[in-house]
Amino acid sequence: LMRLSESKAQGDIALPVSLVKGAPVVTVEVAGRHMSLLLDLAAAVSLLPEPAVHGSDLQGRNLTFHPLVGSFHTQHYTAEICVGGECRLFRVGLLPEALDEQLALDGIEGVLGVDLLQHFGLSLNLGQKVIKLGRRSMAVTRRRKLPPLARQAM
Q: Mind listing the pLDDT tens digit for each residue in 31-56?
C-alpha cells in the first residue's frame, strides 16, 4: 500500500526535486559520489550503473521490469545509498544498457525505486519541488554530517 501526501512527514528529511520532462529527479550519494536518479515509484527496485555497485556484494540475479524497456534480467547487489545525510543499505539492480542510454540523454544516471519506501515515509510536493522523507526505525548504516545549507533545508 502506497499513500502519497503533501502533508509533513514525521522527522522530515527535505530532498530537493528537479523535474525533467515532468518526472521527479533527486540527487543522492552512492559510493561516495553524488548521482541524479529518477524517482520512479513504479520501479520495484533501484537501478544503478555498474561503476556505482563496483565492489558491492552480489545477491543474485532476478527478472525485473521498467516501463521504458520492459522486462529484463539483472544482477542484484547490496549498495549503500545516502539520502539527506542518512545512509542505508539498499538492494539494487544493474541499470540495463537500453535504459541507461535513454536516461543519459537527460543527465539522469539511474532509478530510485519504490524500495526507498521500505526505509522512509514519503511526502511529495511537486509544486514546491521537494520530497520530504520521514525517518523510520530501520537501522541506519551511518549518518553523515550535513553542510549548513542542507541542514537549513530540513
A: 888 999 998 888 888 999 999 988 88
Upper half-sphere CA count for residue 54 (Cβ side, 13 Å): 6
Please report how many Cα atoms fall inside a 13 Å half-sphere around the Cα of residue 28, on the Cβ side: 30
Beta bridge partners of 18: 25
Complete DSSP assignment for the chain:
-----SSPPTTEEEEEEEEETTEEEEEEEETTEEEEEEE-TT-SSEEE-HHHHTTSEEEEEEEEEETTTEEEEEEEEEEEEEETTEEEEEEEEEPPHHHHHHHHTTT--EEE-GGGGGTEEEEEETTTTEEEEEE-SSPPSEEPPPPHHHHHH-
- State if pTM tops 0.90: no
Residue 75: closest CA among 89, 90, 98, 92? 92
